Amino acid sequence: MAAVDRFSLLYREIGRACDFYIEALVIAGAWYTATKCISFAVKTYSLLRLHFLPKLVGKIDLVKQYGRWAVVTGSTDGIGKAYAEELARRGVNIILISRNKEKLEAVSRSIAETYKVETDFIVADFSKGREAYLPIKEALKDREIGILVNNVGVCYSYPDYFTNLSEDLLWEIMNVNIASASMMVHIVLPGMVEKKKGAIVNVSSTACCQPIPMLTVYGASKSYLDYFSRALHYEYAPKGIFIQSLIPFIISTKMVPQGTILSKRSFLFPSAEEYASQAVSTLGLSIRTPGYWKHAIQVTLLEHIPEWIWAWGIEYVCRIVRKKALTSKLK
Fold first, then answer.
1. Which residues contact 280 (CB under 8 A, 6 or more apart)?
2. Does 307 reside within a domain?
3. Considering 66, 83, 156, 218, which one is annotated as catalytic?
4. 237: domain range?
5. Is 218 assigned a catalytic role?
6. Residue 12 pLDDT
7. Could you read off the pLDDT of 32-55 as tens digits, one per residue?
8. How far apart are the first and last CA of the chain?
9. Average pLDDT of span 99-103
10. Using 50, 70 and 90 to split pLDDT, how confident is the model at 320?
């Protein structure tokens, strides 16, 4: 009987000791749940504010807000061309910059005829480095540039290991993906500061959110654009300049490996035109955004995947794409 009493006493003492830890766990759980609910509510509001409310309240007058002319680099294909067309649809005059004169002439003429705006173009090969910017400076010196879209970019032909990359490709990625945005901002920004208005859009990628093995240099270049955009915004927002980092997920363009499921437009992978129509609507509203509501959901999920799981999965996919590309080259 005494043994039973001692056991009951011990049980009660253990229960009292555990009560404190149970209460602490309940409080911690409630706090965690509350923070997650608040985070979900904030992201839901942000999604609605960026992608749905603008449709209800009407489009911003971009010419009045920023200026008459927009400069778009890498503007003869894909996102750059679609973004230029969307700006033109809203009454902004367009200056296209790319390296292919024939394509520039065709796109420039098409935009002018379709949207009844003024257009111009500058032939420039950003892979050439410093020499590419002298004609751009000269062509833009007397223009009232209100919007700059740094879209030009290059990627690998297929995923590959860093040591397999040629020095030419490394320099091309650094010159086109990194130096071009820095130099174009350096050329255009002083005029915007003088007018105390303007917008700069740097097209980064969700590659800046998580590491992508076998696309290492490309991902690093996009991380530069993302950091550059966010830091520069805080420098120049007080001077009336809006600077945005666009971090799109997969878009059905020529940059995506052809012949794969990623290259085909689908519910999750929009066309460049569909993407640009929503991305332009986020101008002035968010300094860092995927630009497209479905991408916003995908990026949120991506950022919650543990890095090692993501890296393992994406490297596995990259190896398959690499193997397929090498096999097709041998045929």
1. 62, 83, 86, 87, 90
2. yes
3. 218
4. 59-327
5. yes
6. 64
7. 677 667 766 666 655 565 555 565
8. 88
9. 95
10. very high
